[in-house]
Design goal:
The chain has helices at 11-18, 22-28, 37-50, 56-63, 79-93, 110-118, 134-142, 166-179, 195-210, 225-237, 251-264, 297-314, and strands at 68-74, 98-104, 124-128, 147-150, 160-164, 184-188, 217-219, 244-248, 272-278, 291-294, 321-324, 327-329. It is an alpha/beta fold and 341 residues long. The strands form 2 sheets. The chain has a 6-stranded parallel beta sheet, with helices on both faces. It has a 6-stranded mixed beta sheet with strand order 7-6-8-9-10-12, sandwiched between helices.
Length: 341
C-alpha cells in the first residue's frame, strides 16, 4: 500500500489540480457567488477527482469566522412555528451559513440555552417563540453577535425584530366581523405577557372603540386548544348578545371554541362567529373551516434571514423592526347571513 493512501487531501491539492488559487477553492465551496460557473465547475471536478471534502472547522480557524447561526425556539404545539423554522433553515442552507438549533423545553431557562449556543462562537442568533433578556442582549452585543427576534419580542431588549403586523391584523378582523353582521364581540387572549397577544388585543379593542363599541368581552387564554375549550362556557355566562363575533389570539384557541360549541349545541357561525390568527393547516379541515388571518410565514423567514445576514456582514448593531401584513382568509366560521345590519 502506498504511503500516500491515507493522505488527507487539502485545498492546496485541489488548487494545483484545477490550476487556480487556494482562495478560489474556498470560494467555490461557499455560496458567495463570486466565481464564474466555468471556474467553479473546474474546482468541483478537481475536488471530486481527488476525493476532497472541505473542512468547515479548519476554515473557521483560518478565517476567524465560524459561519454558524444559532436558532433557539421555545416548545410550542403551534405548527406555525415549526413551519417558520423549516422555511428559515431552508433559506439559510442556500447561503454560506450553517445552523445550530436548540429548543427550550418546559422549565428550562432561555438564558441557559443561549449561553450554550454562544459556546459555538455563532455569528448571529435567531429566536423563535422565545423572549430575550436584556442581559443576554448585552452579552451578545459585547461579543459582536447580532440577534433577531421572530414573531414575538422583548421590548426591553435592543435586538432586531421581524414579525407580523398584529395590531393591524386584529383591526382587520374587527372590520370583517362587523361586515358579516356581528354586533357583540369578544377576544380570547394568548399568553398575557407575549408581545403578539398584547398587540392583537390592543388592535381589537382600539378598532372597536373607534367604531363605537366599548364593551367587548375579554377572556384569558394561553395560546392552547384547551384554553379555547375553557373560554366558551365563560363567554356564554356573560350573557352576550348573539350573534357574537369572537376573535381568538391564535387558531388553536379558535378550534377549541368550535369543538366546545359543537358539544354544547351552539351554532357556528349562526350564534357565534369565530376567527383565529396564523391560518395553520388545520384551519381548512372540514371540521373547522376557520376564518383566519394568514401569517406571511415564508416572507417572514426570507426577510428575517436576509436582515440578520446583512447585520452580520456589516457589523451593524442598530436594531431594526420590520412588520409584515396579514392576509384575511375567509371560511365558513364567520359566514353569517341574514343578521341585522
Amino acid at each position: 500500500m502506498s504511503n500516500n493512501a491515507h493522505k488527507t487531501v487539502t485545498s492546496i491539492d485541489v488548487a494545483k489540480r484545477a490550476g487556480v488559487s487556494q482562495s478560489t477553492v474556498s470560494r467555490a465551496f461557499s455560496c458567495s457567488g463570486k466565481l464564474s460557473p466555468k471556474t467553479r465547475e473546474a474546482v468541483i471536478r478537481a475536488a471530486d477527482e481527488l476525493g476532497y471534502r472541505p473542512n468547515a472547522i479548519a476554515r473557521s480557524l483560518v478565517s476567524n469566522q465560524t459561519k454558524f447561526i444559532g436558532i433557539v425556539k421555545s416548545a410550542t404545539d403551534n405548527s406555525m412555528f415549526s413551519e417558520l423554522l423549516t422555511f428559515m433553515v431552508e433559506r439559510l442552507q442556500k447561503t454560506e451559513y450553517q445552523v445550530i438549533y436548540y429548543e427550550v423545553g418546559h422549565g428550562q431557562s432561555i438564558d441557559d440555552i443561549l449561553s450554550r449556543v454562544l459556546q459555538y462562537r455563532v455569528e448571529g442568533i435567531i429566536l423563535l417563540y422565545a423572549n430575550l433578556s436584556s442581559e443576554i442582549t448585552r452579552v451578545c452585543r459585547s461579543m459582536g453577535i447580532p440577534v433577531l427576534q421572530m414573531l414575538r419580542y422583548s421590548t426591553n431588549a435592543q435586538a432586531n425584530v421581524v414579525s407580523p403586523a398584529n395590531h393591524a391584523g386584529a383591526a382587520l378582523a374587527v372590520e370583517h366581523l362587523m361586515e358579516k353582521g356581528y354586533r357583540s364581540f369578544a377576544y380570547i387572549t394568548g399568553e398575557l405577557n407575549a408581545s403578539s397577544n398584547m398587540e392583537r388585543q390592543l388592535g381589537f379593542l382600539s378598532r372597536l372603540a373607534e367604531l363605537g363599541y366599548n364593551d367587548p368581552v375579554v377572556l384569558q387564554g394561553d395560546y392552547t386548544y384547551e384554553s379555547g375549550c375553557r373560554a366558551l362556557p365563560l363567554l356564554l355566562e356573560r350573557d352576550v348578545k348573539l350573534p357574537c363575533g369572537v376573535l381568538c389570539a391564535n387558531d388553536l384557541i379558535a378550534m377549541g371554541v368550535i369543538d366546545t360549541a359543537r358539544s354544547m349545541g351552539i351554532r357556528i357561525p349562526e350564534d357565534i362567529g369565530v376567527m383565529g390568527f396564523d391560518n395553520i393547516f388545520m384551519s381548512n379541515w372540514p371540521a373547522y373551516q376557520l376564518t383566519s388571518l394568514q401569517n406571511p410565514t415564508e416572507e417572514l423567514a426570507e426577510r428575517g434571514v436576509r436582515l440578520l445576514i446583512d447585520k452580520i456582514q456589516n457589523n451593524d448593531f442598530t436594531p431594526d423592526i420590520l412588520q409584515l401584513n396579514f392576509k384575511l382568509v375567509e371560511r365558513r366560521s364567520t359566514q353569517l347571513t341574514g343578521a341585522p345590519k
